[in-house]
Design brief:
about 300 residues; mainly alpha
């Protein structure tokens, strides 16, 4: 019975991880559809609307008592603040980079980041690597090395994205709590500042309403939901599957974004980058095969 429950929990976690990765992969289309709204304005709206969205939904689902329970737990709020700063920094860099036509460099960052997540899982949480995950990790590392050698420079945007999100993932792993509640506390302390800055920009004619088309204002209204959903899925996955599994599934997101960057946004892409892309996906194939085999063995036992 316990093994069946564990397997069910794992399947839910893996589904959440895959859903998060796919949604994240397609988000560059959304961010670029908001042009010419300034990236900083989008970021402030994102912070404010995530805070509002998570409060409303979490209050509705869990009630007042459960929503405010973390405030009574000693030492938990500073952890939320650190996690909030990390994820806000990550998303701010990401939104700015996408709107500045650095979609492919964001992909590099999100190719490096799962390696850091996997390494954190092994070092901090003593997670074990089976031969399929080890192979997947080795191929992913090889692909990243090819990219780094090819660019012959330290990709600051990519490394910033990788480090902030991997650290955020490690923090999320440490506390087991409903995803929407944690998201609310990670955002709430920044929400008043974001609202003040939104008002300032709008009053001074530098906000969204002064430059955007009506349909873009409509799109902007969904920024809270479109940010909260993948983050909630990620938190649900982090609570249910290993950091190694979580890290490897995250290669789906930058791969989708890479295809979008090449074929939709027409960013430059050469044969070396394509080679790195293929190497990483060979690793993903190993991981997928291992997951299918493990799943079959679990059903048989």
């Amino acid at each position: 019975m316990e093994k069946t429950l564990e397997k069910k929990n794992y399947n839910i976690g893996m589904s959440c991880a895959l859903g998060c990765a796919v949604l994240w992969g397609f988000l560059p289309i959304y961010w670029q559809a908001l042009r010419p709204i300034d990236s900083m304005v989008i970021i402030f709206y994102r912070i404010f609307l995530v805070g509002v969205t998570t409060f409303v939904v979490a209050y509705k689902l869990y009630g007042r008592e459960k929503l405010f329970a973390p405030m009574k737990q000693k030492g938990l709020l500073p952890t939320f603040i650190i996690a909030g700063i990390l994820i806000t920094s990550n998303w701010s860099i990401y939104i700015w980079a996408v709107n500045a036509n650095y979609v492919i460099q964001t992909c590099i960052g999100y190719y490096i980041e799962p390696l850091m997540v996997c390494i954190f899982g092994v070092v901090l949480f003593k997670e074990k690597l089976n031969k399929y995950k080890l192979a997947a990790l080795a191929f992913a590392l090889a692909g990243v090395v090819v990219i780094l050698i090819h660019f012959k420079e330290v990709p600051i945007i990519a490394l910033s994205l990788a480090l902030t999100f991997a650290t955020y993932a490690a923090i999320k792993k440490k506390y087991q709590m409903e995803a929407l509640i944690t998201l609310f506390y990670e955002t709430v302390f920044l929400t008043p500042f974001a609202l003040a800055l939104i008002i300032y920009f709008e009053v001074n004619g530098k906000g969204a309403f002064s430059v955007a088309e009506p349909y873009q204002i409509g799109l902007l209204a969904f920024v809270g939901l479109l940010t909260a959903t993948p983050l909630a899925l990620f938190a649900m996955a982090a609570n249910r599957i290993s950091m190694v599994s979580l890290g490897i599934t995250e290669y789906i997101s930058p791969s989708i974004a890479l295809i979008i960057g090449i074929f939709i946004f027409k960013e430059p892409f050469d044969s070396i980058q394509f080679l790195a892309f293929i190497i990483i996906w060979i690793g993903l194939a190993y991981f997928t095969y291992g997951e299918i085999k493990e799943s079959k063995n679990g059903r048989e036992s």
